[in-house]
Amino acid sequence: MTKRKDSAPTWVDPDDAPALTEEFFENGTWRIGEQEVTREEAQAAISESRGCRIDCRRQ
């Protein structure tokens, strides 16, 4: 079926956020509050807040 010539164009919401890709996350900056930290420091803080060691997520 073809689109009618007098139909309205497809609407795209200008407020839609872009897709979050792997590249987006790979290029991100790890922060705790306003302080930049390494990935390892951030993961340790996350694990500590959950009450487990950093290796517990691998088990």
Explain briefly what this protein structure is:
29% of the residues lie in helices and 7% in strands. By secondary structure, the protein is mainly alpha-helical.
Detailed description of the structure:
- This protein has 59 residues and is mainly alpha-helical.
- It is 29% helix and 7% strand.
- It contains two helices and two strands; from the N terminus they run αββα.
- It has helices at residues 22-26, 39-50; strands spanning 31-32, 35-36.
- The protein has a two-stranded antiparallel ribbon with strand order 1-2.
- The longest helix is centred in the last third of the chain and has 12 residues, at 39-50.
- The mean pLDDT is 81.
Write the layout of secondary structure elements.
Blueprint: H1 22-26, E1 31-32, E2 35-36, H2 39-50
Antiparallel strand pairs: 1-2
Could you estimate the helical fraction of the residues in percent? Answer: 25-40%
* Average pLDDT: 81
List the secondary-structure elements in sequence, H or E: HEEH
What percent of residues are in strands? 5-15%
Shape: rod-shaped
Number of helices: 2
| Radius of gyration computed on alpha carbons | 22 Å
Largest sheet: 2 strands, antiparallel
Q: Structural class of the secondary elements? A: mainly alpha
The count of DSSP E runs of length 2 or more, i.e. the number of strands, is: 2
Distance between the termini: 53 Å
Give the low-pLDDT segments: none
For the largest sheet, list the strands in their spatial order.
1-2
